[in-house]
Amino acid sequence: MNREWSLIELYGGFDDPAFAADEAALEEYIAEYASLANDPAGDAAEVLRKEIRLSQKIQEKATLLFSYAELRQSVNTSDADASAVLGRLSQKLSALSGPSALFTRYVAALEDLDELIAGDALLGEHEFYLHNRKEQARYTLDPQVEQAISLYEISGSRAWSDLQGYLSSTVPVEYNGGVTTLSDIRNKAYDPDAAVRRSAYEAELKAYGRIRDGVAYSLNSIKLEVLSRCRLRGYDSPLDEALRSSHMKRETLDALLGAMEEALPKFWAYLRAKAKLLGHEGALPWYDIFAPLEGSGQRFTTEECRDYLVELFSTFDPEEAGLIARAFDNGWIDFYPREGKVGGAFCADIHPLGESRVLTNYDGNLGDVVTLAHELGHAFHNHCLRENSILNTDVSMPVAETASTFNEVVAMNAAIAAEKDPFARRALLESELMGATQIICDIYSRYLFESAVFERRSGEFLFPDELCAIMTAAQKRAYGNGLDERYLHPYMWACKSHYYIGGLSFYNFPYAFGGLFARGLYARYLAEGESFVPLYKRLLKATGTTSVEGAARVAGIDLTDIGFWCDALSVLTGEIDEFIALCRL
Q1: Residue 112 contacts by C-beta under 8 Å, 6 or more apart in sequence?
Q2: Beta bridge partners of 355
Q3: Would you state the pLDDT for residue 296?
Q4: Residue 298: which region, alpha, beta or left (left: phi > 0; alpha: psi -120 to 50)?
Q5: Count of alpha carbons within 13 Å of 420, Cβ hemisphere only?
Q6: CA 486 to centroid of chain Cα atoms
Q7: Using an 8 Å Cβ cutoff, are 397 and 510 in contact?
Q8: Pairing status of strand 173-175 against strand 178-180
Q9: Scanning 111, 187, 292, 412, which has the fewest C-beta atoms within 10 Å of its C-beta?
Q10: What is the reported pTM?
Q11: What is the pLDDT of residues 183-235, one digit of tens each?
């Protein structure tokens, strides 16, 4: 089986004639778009149809070109060619900012937009897209200003983001008499040897001293840019911008966070129970959050991982099982950590190919198998959207995590249900709760951290010590008496790439949303069986053409009702009760 993903389906290299041809076509489409934007004369319906067709062509070519360069760079952050190409492509696309702003104003001025949509099949297909353009007009500046912002972002937030990625992926970590990478040392948090986990944690924290100043400047610069952009465009705050771009109501977020806050003490009790099992007095130190319990030490080769996931998901949906098999067999996955490769995991949708690519830093433990199930859930979501227009695949942050977390739930619940040995069952329950604690406690700490950074950054520069203090305070509030305050992780701000996306703030609460929404959907699946699967696929397909609340309504769910979230959490709190009872064995 391949160790690295295949990109030949995109291009053979930057010198591939197909790459040059697609880049030239992109330039041509951008020029046509600008010409139409500057002179949208004639029948309004025809103007809108032309805009949609050109936007489709631009997004398709841009997706192919950017995907190739970004995927190359993600596995080799020192790839100078990829960096140069990404800069060049970004400059080309920046030319769209002004014309796009003109079209946004054009759409906003159409008083008969609904009538135009109702009378045309193509416009009807893109109703959500067009209404979003009309809404976006409220927050769109003069076209020249929008173009200037886009140009400055290339050497601003995007460059600072690249710096964080470069520093975190290349910083040498001294460990056990040698030198390793940050992603490799972070993987040791799952090691069965307690001494390895603690020494790796200490080596990791020490390594951040080498890069903390550069990463802090990156974070400060990005967040100030976001604050300035929000003020210029008229958003109340970066959170307001995030919610509007997510097509999500504040009432939904408040209901979600309210339910999470109520459930926190239960998760603290789980952490203290785990601490006792591991021989700690009182609370759990950070370096043992991911400690595997005895009975959960099963290792999986990539071949074993493939067979396990294909067999498991064939009981849910043969279509998804087939997609998972193709991902393993056709080189969609880049598995192992190596120098220069970014940490963590992600799934990239290549809509024009009808394929995805998955990056992971695979080590073979159960957590890595679940991570792959998560990322392949994204791939299945992309698969469900494949027949949509590319303009109807821009899924908002919260629902973007639904299919991925649903896969996690399927994988873990199947393993738990099949296990009869109480000690092995306890280990599997703990593995499930370990992940759930990340989407409840840790995500809540990230939300608190980012909120505090935005609140303070408008008036002060946050040096590394201040950022560490903010992160530590957020962790204390989110983890309560579940974690030992002497051993927290003050540098979580330095290694999480989500904080460094200038155009995407608060990429944290969507994970909690996805985790709990997925559990609510899974409960429906257990109750309804096979008849639920087509409904689930329709819901995933609808995420590109409706609001978060609208997608939930496909399954008859009211997301502004805190009761829904509390019910979803009750499944987890029930598992905590069982785990604590098994800890007494």
Answers
A1: 44
A2: 350
A3: 53
A4: beta
A5: 0
A6: 30
A7: yes
A8: antiparallel
A9: 111
A10: 0.83
A11: 899 999 999 999 999 999 999 999 999 999 999 999 999 999 999 999 999 99
| Burial track 190-226 (b if 16+ CB lie within 10 A, e otherwise) | bbeeeebbbbbbebbbebbeebbebbbbbbbbbbbbb
Other Cβ atoms closer than 10 A to 467: 25
Cα–Cα distances in angstroms (integers) from residue 264 to residues 200, 334, 475, 476, 480, in the given order: 28, 36, 12, 12, 8
Residues 6+ apart with CB under 8 A from 339: 170, 181
Compute φ and ψ for 396, nearest 5 degrees.
Answer: -70, 160
Inter-residue contact 502 to 156 (CB < 8 Å): yes
Report which secondary-structure segment, H or E, holds 329: helix 318-329
pLDDT for the residue 297:
60
Task: Return the biggest CA–CA distance within the chain.
Answer: 78
Give the pLDDT of residue 140. Answer: 85
Distance CA 312, CA 316 (A): 7
- pLDDT in the model for residue 182: 92
Contact 426, 297 (CB under 8 A): no
Q: Which residues contact 1 (CB under 8 A, 6 or more apart)?
A: 302, 303, 306, 328, 329
Strands 333-334 and 346-350: unpaired
| Helix 509-528 vs helix 562-582: crossing angle, to nearest 10 | 80
| Residue 178 β-bridge partners | 175
CA distance 317 to 321: 6
Q: State residue 269's pLDDT score.
A: 98
| Alpha carbons 370 and 305: distance in angstroms, whole number | 9
For the segment 280-309, what is each residue's pLDDT rounded down to a tens digit? 999 999 999 999 887 656 789 999 999 999
Residue 565: alpha-carbon gap to chain centroid: 21
Low-confidence stretches of the chain (pLDDT < 70) are: 295-297
DSSP-derived 3-state class of residue 173? strand
Question: How many other CB atoms are there within 10 angstroms of residue 563's CB atom?
Answer: 10
Q: Is 395 left (phi over 0), alpha (psi -120 to 50) or beta?
A: beta
